[in-house]
Specification:
Strand content: 15-25%
Number of helices: 7
Bound molecules: hypoxanthine
CATH architecture: 3-Layer(aba) Sandwich
Structural class: alpha/beta
Largest sheet: 5 strands, mixed, barrel
Distance between the termini: 34 Å
CATH topology: Rossmann fold
Helix content: 25-40%
CATH superfamily: Nucleoside phosphorylase domain
Strand order of the largest sheet: 5-8-7-6-9
Oligomer: single chain
CATH class: Alpha Beta
């Protein structure tokens, strides 16, 4: 048995001492987007610090808890607080909770993040359904020996974001009368925001939004055969020829403002799963 598999089993064993819940839906909430957690009827909360091999959050805007409960009547497990590459965690650490979720019974992963808008037709506060991604993090959580019991050496990425979930979410947005964008998410390591030249480059290579998360979790979820659905909130406009300075406070303020739309979509998607 691989070291990784042993670590997963140990984490699952601890969680099983606290809850017998077998949610099929996993949720990862992004920066400033913890509000969906408030909508979960919580049954059990487990501090990351209590779970063997779980990394612990360092970013102030993130809480480090695994939440079990129901959302729109469905059993869910949600990560309140996620890990970023720029915090110094390895890709394996960042994605460890996704592996644990899989072994708890999760087959569908819903992810949210705060991102900068690259597409000039997008505006601050827009919600974007993630159609595809470009990994420019400069690393990959699958590098190293592959545990074939977890997933294949060369996972297929032709449908990283489930088309069924995308079309269902599109219908949800229509029904709720919430306008949404669709686009390609690119991840950079950060922690600095990008330069004008970098934004120009990212737009040129086909990205609509840029952030610093989500892709490692998606890659590992796909490796383990899960379905992924992702939503980005545009917290700032990254237009190289009209660029203004951005602060974390502004990013969080815009995320908070747009959050009800994202939360409503996520909740209804969960309901229809
Ligand atoms: N880059 C630029 N703007 C952003 C980002 C990013 O990674 N995340 C949120 N807004």
């Amino acid at each position: 048995m691989s070291e990784l598999r042993k670590h997963i089993d140990e984490a699952v064993a601890l969680i099983r001492t606290r809850t017998g819940s077998k949610p099929k839906i996993g949720i990862i909430l992004g920066t400033g987007l913890g509000g969906l957690a408030a909508e979960i009827a919580k049954e059990v909360e487990i501090d990351y610090a209590d779970i063997p091999h779980f990394p612990v959050s360092t970013v102030e805007s993130h809480h480090g808890k695994l939440l079990f409960g129901t959302l729109a009547g469905k059993n869910v497990v949600a990560m309140q607080g996620r890990f970023h590459f720029y915090e110094g965690y390895s890709m394996q650490q960042i994605t460890f909770p996704v592996r644990v979720m899989k072994f708890l019974g999760v087959d569908t992963l819903l992810i949210s993040n705060a991102a900068g808008a690259l597409n000039p037709l997008f505006r601050k506060g827009d919600v974007m359904l993630i159609v595809d991604h470009i990994n420019l993090l400069g690393d990959n959580p699958l590098i190293g020996p592959n545990d074939d019991t977890l997933g294949p050496r060369f996972p297929d990425m032709s449908e990283a974001y489930s088309r069924d979930l995308l079309s269902m979410a599109g219908q949800v947005a229509l029904d709720l009368r919430i306008g949404v964008q669709r686009g390609v998410y690119v991840a950079m390591s950060g922690p600095n925001l990008e330069t004008r030249a970098e934004y120009r480059f990212l737009r040129f290579i086909g990205a609509d939004a840029v952030g610093m998360s989500t892709i490692p979790e998606t890659i590992v979820a796909i490796h383990m055969g899960m379905r992924v659905f992702g939503v980005s909130i545009m917290t700032d406009e990254c237009f190289p020829d009209a660029l203004k300075p951005v602060t974390l406070e502004e990013v969080i303020a815009v995320a908070k403002k747009a959050e009800p739309n994202m939360t409503a979509i996520m909740k209804e998607v969960v309901k229809r799963l």
